[in-house]
Amino acid sequence: MHHRPHHRAVAAAFVVTVLPALASCAPQADPPPETASPGWPGETWPVSTPAAENVNGAVLDSIDAEIRAGEFGRIDHFLVIRHGKLIYDRHYERDYAALAVADGRDTTHHIYNYDDPRWHPYYDGSALHTLQSVTKSITSLALGIAVDEGHIDGVEVPAMSFFDAYAPDMSDPRRRAMTLRDLLTMRSGIDWNEELPYDDPENTCLQMEASDDWIRFVLDRPMREEPGTRFDYNSGVSVLLGKVVGVATGTRVDRWTAERLFAPLGIRSWHWKITPDGEVDTEGGLYLAPRDLARVAYLVLRNGRWGNRQIVSEAWIRESAHPWVRFPDPEEGPLAGGYGFQWWLEHDDRETVAIAGAGYGGQYPIVVPDKDLVVVFNAWNIHGRPTRNSAEAILTRIVPAAR
To answer: Which residues, in sequence order, are CB contacts of 311 under 8 Å at separation 6+?
Structure first.
């Protein structure tokens, strides 16, 4: 099954004209005097109103009304953070068990059956929502912290140097040349086809998820081209990146992330799927509550800083938000501008203007530094396509509404 928000298939164009160029990834707009020093959430987010934070609330209300009318499909949560304050927060209650039955879906209990209401979109009746491929973006932050702490000597190190225990076939010089940067930017050179429908047995990601040993499955794939030369969306490399964190730090990536990322951000509840061989599913297996996903996005907005502590270096955020891959046709859909270190990007000719995680079904934490803005949508639109698209709404309606 899939986690990828196919960058060529998401409806509606990402409108760049509403997003002014940035001088850097740091917030550049002058906030109101009372918000000159950014706030930080404690146990809960500080709350304000759209009007107090200079956002046109009528635009947010109109989107809320359209969600309730079903125009955005099955949206589960919609929230907006401006100047570090929660200004809009809407939850949409849905009985996914009843909906699955009404839709005639196979609800067989299995962690990779996306119609199983015990697993999707919420974890076992909790408030934890599946993030799907937003998991990749959070794994990148965890790896960045490992680099910052000196466990990994940067992103130019050979990727295969972390997998000696698997004794991969190193006869192909392209495999020997593959670096962590190549994995982070989805330019691994590995023979992988995730462009097929995710119910197609030839889809390589589907084959990986059906295997008993995901890491070995990825390592056993042949090389197709020189690393660093072509973007080829590959959930398998995100699995490898999670293992790299564990090997380099001596701490399994879920515990590393809990200690080094979630705890400092005040995130106390999460769930992470575990693969058949006991590894962590770092390509799409993480669940967080919406307000906690907003904390992760806010960390990115604040260049890796949280209060008086630098959680991940500003340099890592800058590299993550750089369009190392630029897609030739920005009108293919939202988030089709470029790709950084496991983050989707939109940019003008000079700088990145929006940084986003994007996950199957409509998981969108989107950071707009120039507007000092974070928007989060959680949804579960996995069958068909709704009339309106939430990523498009963020960038063509919500961003212009923030003055």
So the answer is: 145, 260, 261, 264, 265, 299, 304, 305
Rounded to whole angstroms, the Cα distance separating 27 from 369 reads: 5
Residues 6+ apart with CB under 8 A from 235: 2, 3, 4, 133, 136, 194, 205, 208, 283, 284
CA angle (131 as vertex; 128, 353 as ends), nearest 5 = 125
Q: Where a domain ends, among 244, 273, 288?
A: 288
In a domain? residue 362: yes
Query: How much is the pLDDT for 198?
Result: 77
Phi, psi of 347 (to 5 degrees): -150, 160
Whether the per-residue pLDDT at 348 is higher than 90: the answer is no
Same domain, 150 and 279: yes
From CA 265, how far away is CA 306, in angstroms rounded?
A: 7
Residue 26 is predicted with a pLDDT of: 37
pLDDT for the residue numbered 335: 67
- Number of structural domains in the chain: 2
Q: Are strands 352-356 and 271-272 parallel, antiparallel or unpaired?
A: unpaired
Tell whether 98 and 133 lie within a shared domain: no
Sign of CA dihedral 108, 109, 112, 118: positive
Across residues 31-46, what is the average pLDDT? 71
Q: What is the CATH number of the domain that holds 218?
A: 3.40.710.10
Over residues 20-38, the mean pLDDT reads 41
CA dihedral 77, 38, 359, 220 (to 10 degrees): -150
Instruction: Collect all residues with Cβ–Cβ distance below 8 Å to 328 and sequence separation of at least 6.
Output: none
pTM of the model: 0.90
Describe the crossing of helices 290-301 and 134-148 by its angle, rounded to 10 degrees: 50
Q: What is the rounded CA–CA span in Å between residue 304 and residue 10? A: 29
CA–CA dist 25, 346 (Å, integer): 12
Across the chain, what does the average pLDDT equal?
89
CA distance 16 to 150: 37
